[in-house]
Every structure is written in C-alpha cells, then in structure tokens.
C-alpha cells in the first residue's frame, strides 16, 4: 500500500492533530507548510491529504474530509484577529496576512456582514508594525497573532473567533483534514482520529515540544490549546462550516458552496 502524502500546518494549533502521526512513517509521509501552501499542494495533487484552510474545500472537486477532526474555536480563538488603530467602523484600509485563506475569507465575510464596512484590502506579510503603518488595521493569524504585543503599538485587538460566535452563535472551523478521493482507508481515518484524541488531551506536552527552549511561550501555548482551540467536528461545527461557506459564496469570496463529503 502506497504511503499517504500529508501536508500539515506548521502552526501550534495544528500540532495536536499531527504530532501522533510522526511515528507512523510506515503509512504517512508528513511535510509542514503554511496553510495556504498546504492547499496549493493538494490542489496540484502533490499531496494526498492536507490540513487545509476550510474555505479551500470549495476550490476543489470531489474532495472529502476526515470526520471529527478539525481546528475549531467556539468563542475567542486568540490567534486570528484584526488589530486596528481606529474604531472598526472607521477602518478604510485593511492589511491581510495571506498565510491562511480561510482567515482572509472570514475577514471579508465579517467586514461585509457583521462590521458593515467595505475597506480596501492590501496583501502583506505577517509583520504587524509594517502592516499598520500601511493600513488602518491588519489581519494577523497563527503564532504571530497569539504573541503580538498590540498594546505597545497602541492597537485594539478584535478576536475574529469571538466576533463570529457573536454573529452566528456557532463555532468556526479554520482547517480540516481534506483529501483526494480514495486517498484514505477506514484504518487511516481511525489513525488520524486517534492521533487527534491523544494530541488534544495533552496540551502541555504538545506546547512544550513546540517551544522546547521557551517556558513562557510554552505555558501560553498550553493554555491556548486548552482554552481556545477545539479539535472535534460535531453537528454544531458542521453547521458553522456550512454557514461560513454560504456567506463566503454570498459575498463573492468563492463562486459557490458545496455539500460536505466525508471519508
């Protein structure tokens, strides 16, 4: 049986889904990239399964998702946020960290549907100081957003996980294992689910492994994995994902929505 080529996200919030797979080199070949790169590799068939931004599911045909495995928030997420110099209703320019297309899509949905603004978007690398020099506000994601010292820069932080919950009363799904038709066997799915269960149950171990030389970051990371991030995909999470897909199509982020398909 051929080894499954897996594209995993290099951020801390993905580690609980992935750390248990590293010992299964007999079955899985894992590489680490930015979320947007994982999506590109899956679309080009360079990997078989990717932990891709959820919106990228809509940019493929025939994809399936691994049941009950995802990166989710049900309230504050801490690591996906708009940092702004002015009240959100006065934002006219917004710099986008393009590392994750789901967070960009969420920002476009929320500015149109929740904040009721229509800013000019600027693509930028994840450098918060540079971003807010060039724009009224900035979307930052992942570890840079989690550890950003926004108060030193005189910025307000708007947590998009909490904003989505306020808007919809639903969780938000940032990323999920998504793959090509027939890429996984039922046994593979069980391995992925088991890895998720073990990783999610040990946030301190996962964070200490991610920040082996920084006790302060490791403690913050453990609290983040414990308190902000969820890794299950139940009925409410599916409802949140379907709501996001519908709104993304409505505001023109994607051409159309699709039904959810599972391995």
Q: Gyration radius, to the nearest Å? A: 18 Å
> How far apart are the termini?
18 Å
SSE class? alpha/beta
What is the ordering of alpha helices and beta strands? EHEHEEEEHEHEHEHEHHHH
Counted beta strands = 10
Unreliable stretches: none
**Overall pLDDT:** 95
- Helix fraction, binned, reads 25-40%
Main sheet properties: 5 strands, mixed
The tally of helices reads 10
Shape: globular
Describe the structure.
This protein has 263 residues and is of the alpha/beta class. 38% of the residues lie in helices and 22% in strands. The chain is built from 10 helices and 10 strands. α8 (203-210) runs antiparallel to α9. The model has no long low-confidence stretch (mean pLDDT 95).
Write the layout of secondary structure elements.
Layout: E1 4-9, H1 15-18, E2 28-33, H2 35-43, E3 49-53, E4 64-73, E5 80-84, E6 93-97, H3 101-113, E7 120-124, H4 128-134, E8 137-141, H5 142-146, E9 156-159, H6 160-168, E10 172-179, H7 186-200, H8 203-210, H9 215-227, H10 235-250
Parallel strand pairs: 1-2, 1-3, 6-7, 6-8
Antiparallel strand pairs: 3-10, 4-10, 5-8, 5-9
């Amino acid at each position: 049986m051929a080894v499954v080529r897996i594209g995993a996200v290099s951020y801390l919030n993905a580690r609980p889904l992935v750390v248990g797979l590293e010992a299964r080199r007999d079955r899985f070949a894992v590489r680490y990239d930015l979320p947007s790169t994982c999506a590109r590799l899956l679309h080009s068939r360079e990997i078989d399964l990717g932990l891709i931004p959820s919106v990228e599911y809509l940019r493929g045909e025939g994809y399936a998702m691994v049941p009950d495995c995802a990166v989710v928030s049900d309230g504050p997420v801490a690591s996906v946020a708009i940092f702004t110099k002015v009240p959100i209703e006065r934002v006219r320019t917004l710099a986008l960290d393009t590392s994750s297309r789901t967070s960009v899509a969420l920002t476009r949905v929320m500015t149109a549907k929740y904040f009721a603004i229509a800013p000019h978007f600027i693509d930028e690398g994840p450098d918060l100081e540079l971003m807010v020099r060039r724009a009224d506000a900035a979307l930052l994601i992942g570890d840079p957003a989690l550890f950003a010292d926004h108060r030193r820069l005189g910025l307000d932080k708007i947590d998009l996980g909490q904003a989505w919950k306020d808007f919809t009363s639903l969780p938000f799904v940032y990323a999920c294992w998504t793959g090509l038709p027939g890429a996984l066997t039922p046994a593979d799915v069980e391995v992925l689910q088991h890895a998720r269960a073990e990783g999610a149950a040990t946030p301190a171990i996962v964070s200490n492994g991610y920040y082996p030389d920084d006790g302060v970051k490791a403690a913050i990371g453990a609290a983040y994995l414990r308190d902000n991030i969820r890794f299950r995909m139940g009925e409410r999470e599916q409802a949140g994902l379907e709501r996001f897909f519908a709104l993304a199509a409505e505001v023109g982020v994607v051409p159309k929505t699709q039904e959810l398909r599972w391995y």
